[in-house]
């Protein structure tokens, strides 16, 4: 974000003690990641008197300037909206997306009533600042009418619910309470689906090396895009530099959606190979981007529009994948006026559905996706190598293997006997105590042994059944 601040002596405001504070004129010309805005945002704000005030200011600007610049002055010109931002920053997850979502709902409500947030709060309080029950009842009715207006626009139930959540959050942050006599549905009208391995392989073939890395990590690691763009080199350094696959990635609570808890996941050989090539290309540099020194805090996925390393945004990831879906003919080129059945989030569904089909227990899948489950601590206590063994046994991949190895051939024979080889290997990994996987050859040897035992047992079972049938 680029600012051009200057102090103004003539314009002043008062702080909480009534003392006058100098004002500062500020012009925002770029987004937090350096993208030039279509039109500069001019603001006149009191100079921050503390680090907390400066942090709040940055939170508001960073959350809104790149998405909807008109919301920036809207937020700063109303003390009530700043109270909401302060509440989210200090007592919630400080998510930029949540602040944007809430303020957009408030913005639409105020525009519908032709008023401002501060005026809403003032209208609902008495001269002493206490809640005015009659005024609150009036705005409860108006909120219900606003729901009707939004529904008349044929907005999705989730969108309507999010707008109303923002208005209610505004009142709550200012010690007031708006309530509807009913719960709003949040069901999804436009459901997405998991792409098939063939569809994913198609868009990967069309992608550049950075987007190949993005898609393969989403598909084989099950990440949310918000978490993926926050990963740094340190998350993959150990396994990547030692040549260990699948690569273990420990995701801290701070970079998850709700910041509830940490978790562990892995990325398979395809994603690891793309990641190595991508990092190698960055180390070499391009005509516009100088060679990059990759270190622990380097963003794993970087914005290539900037000369300095900066993380890719979730919106950029959505745009990259969406364009590939269109290019591959998997979704229409023109907007349908609704959500498509293939989105970035659909690739996360691929991770879940494929692992389930390959025999991995549901709780392990949910854990590797960062979901809160009752067996969370039990699974985490199993240890990284135990989880690595289960992930490896599932043989999750995007593209089919081009070379038929011994283990692949044995799997085909086992399938011909009506058995599921991936399920056999997953069950074996679940019952095996923690072991460190040293090399791929050792892993394949172990899997060959286990599949051979399973095949022998099935053959013996068949022989016994035939013998029993002939002796009757």
Give the SSE layout:
Elements: E1 6-14, E2 20-30, E3 36-46, H1 51-64, H2 71-76, H3 79-91, H4 96-113, H5 117-123, H6 133-152, H7 157-173, H8 197-206, H9 209-221, H10 225-228, H11 237-242, E4 247-251, E5 263-267, H12 269-284, H13 314-327, H14 344-357, H15 362-368, H16 376-380, H17 384-394, H18 406-416, H19 421-431, H20 440-470
Antiparallel strand pairs: 1-2, 2-3, 4-5
Helix pairs in contact: 1-4, 3-7, 4-7, 6-7, 8-9, 9-12, 9-14, 17-19, 18-20, 19-20
Tell me what you see in this structure.
The termini are far apart. α1 packs across α4. Helices cover 53% and strands 9% of the residues. It has 472 residues and is mainly α. The chain has a three-stranded antiparallel beta sheet with strand order 1-2-3. The chain folds into three domains: 78-189, DNA polymerase, domain 1, CATH 1.10.150; 197-380, Orthogonal Bundle (hpI Integrase, Chain A); 401-469, no CATH class. The protein has helices at residues 51-64, 71-76, 79-91, 96-113, 117-123, 133-152, 157-173, 197-206, 209-221, 225-228, 237-242, 269-284, 314-327, 344-357, 362-368, 376-380, 384-394, 406-416, 421-431, 440-470; strands at 6-14, 20-30, 36-46, 247-251, 263-267. The longest helix has 31 residues, at 440-470.
